[in-house]
Design brief:
Elements: H1 3-23, H2 30-45, H3 50-76, E1 96-101, E2 111-115, E3 118-124, E4 135-142, E5 145-149
Parallel strand pairs: 3-5
Antiparallel strand pairs: 1-2, 1-4, 2-3, 4-5
Helix pairs in contact: 1-2, 2-3
Length: 167
Amino acid sequence: MDAGDWVWIWLGVAVAFAILELVTPFFFFMISFAVGAALAALAALLDTGLGAQWALFLVGSGVALAVLVPVGRRLAHAEPEGDETPEGAARWVGRVAIVLEAIPAGPHATGLVRLERGKWRAETDGEAGIPVDAEVEVIAVRGTRLVVAPPDPRQPDPMQPDPRRDP
């Protein structure tokens, strides 16, 4: 075989490994060998000896494995895009706020609540208003307003001792 044949052989091997990468579940494993084969094809194009081409294939594949496989592991363990971690204003849903200004009942009637360090305009979907100093739970965010409701009385308060336990 002449040097021109080895260029095509190495390119075929590189393409084969690249295609295998698409069907393997491990990120960036086979593509590392495709990188090594592409380097060997480049060496064959420069008319180097077969031993040098194999050495370049092995070294190039090893370096590519060392670099790309950790990247693939990080990508495989990254948070999926569809995770349920709330972002933006949705992170306030489920939190407890303190009423600073009474919240009247009715559509578009607002009061003021403190949620962590910030003050927010709040409204309620309930039929009764909410007085000052009441604790409320954020049930939704509409634009720049929080929709709040009194906390569910059936839920135990984590700050109160459990009456079923003897001290």
